[in-house]
């Protein structure tokens, strides 16, 4: 049962990146901090992260890409018109996000990856958030093991579907 005080907690301002490669596929990465037991695919998610105080979300999304996947070689091609929010599951409230937030309020961007696959470097951070990455069709996004983020990913799969085509087409 959720503590009623948790409803008074704010949402953490956050940005997220739906990064499309030249073939129109989307990058997802596997969280390094959650168990990837044998026979289990692990928890896959889109790159995302907090917005610093006073930071423009368009700047934040490129910074987060650089921090989480080792490169910001991308251009913003679209922005979701709404802020999308999700609540943490009850067992994570008070533990995740420093215990200060009930969930996240996110501004999502579609970006086109301009680099080479060798530019994606999960090993640059001494404590990487991800331990693996892959490209997949956008319609498979909500089918990944994303748990409480599934509803947000379903919205993004529809909203950004027009960008899921090869670059230049």
Summary, kept brief:
The protein is of the alpha+beta class and 169 residues long. The chain is built from 2 helices and 8 strands, in the order ββββαββββα.
Structure description:
The structure is a single chain. The chain has 169 residues and is an alpha+beta fold. It has one domain (4-161): Nucleoside Triphosphate Pyrophosphohydrolase (Alpha-Beta Complex). It contains 2 helices and 8 strands; from the N terminus they run E-E-E-E-H-E-E-E-E-H. The chain has helices at 57-69, 150-159; strands at residues 11-20, 26-31, 44-45, 48-50, 74-79, 84-87, 103-113, 130-136. The strands form 2 sheets. Strands 1, 4, 5, 6 and 7 form a 5-stranded mixed beta sheet that branches. The chain has a 3-stranded antiparallel beta sheet with strand order 3-2-8, with no helix packed on it. The longest helix has 13 residues, at 57-69. Keywords: Hydrolase. A motif (Nudix box) lies at residues 49-70. It is an enzyme of class 3 (hydrolase). Residues 10-158 form the Nudix hydrolase domain. GO terms for molecular function: bis(5'-adenosyl)-pentaphosphatase activity; guanosine-3',5'-bis(diphosphate) 3'-diphosphatase activity.
What is the strand and helix layout of this fold?
Blueprint: E1 11-20, E2 26-31, E3 44-45, E4 48-50, H1 57-69, E5 74-79, E6 84-87, E7 103-113, E8 130-136, H2 150-159
Parallel strand pairs: 1-7
Antiparallel strand pairs: 1-4, 2-3, 2-8, 5-7, 6-7
């Amino acid at each position: 049962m959720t503590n009623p005080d948790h409803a008074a907690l704010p949402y953490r301002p956050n940005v997220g990146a739906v990064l499309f490669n030249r073939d129109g596929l989307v990058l997802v990465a596997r969280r390094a901090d959650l168990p990837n037991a044998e026979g289990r695919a692990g928890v896959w998610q889109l790159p995302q992260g907090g917005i610093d105080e006073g930071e423009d979300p368009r700047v934040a999304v490129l910074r987060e890409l650089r921090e989480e996947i080792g490169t910001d070689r991308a251009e913003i091609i679209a922005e979701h018109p709404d802020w999308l929010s999700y609540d943490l599951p009850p067992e994570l409230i008070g533990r995740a996000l420093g215990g200060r937030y009930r969930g996240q309020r996110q501004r999502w961007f579609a970006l086109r990856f301009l680099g080479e696959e060798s530019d994606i470097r999960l090993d640059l951070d001494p404590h990487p958030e991800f331990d693996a990455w892959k490209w997949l069709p956008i319609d498979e996004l909500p089918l990944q093991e994303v748990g409480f983020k599934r509803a947000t990913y379903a919205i993004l799969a529809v909203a950004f579907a027009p960008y899921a085509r090869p670059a230049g087409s």
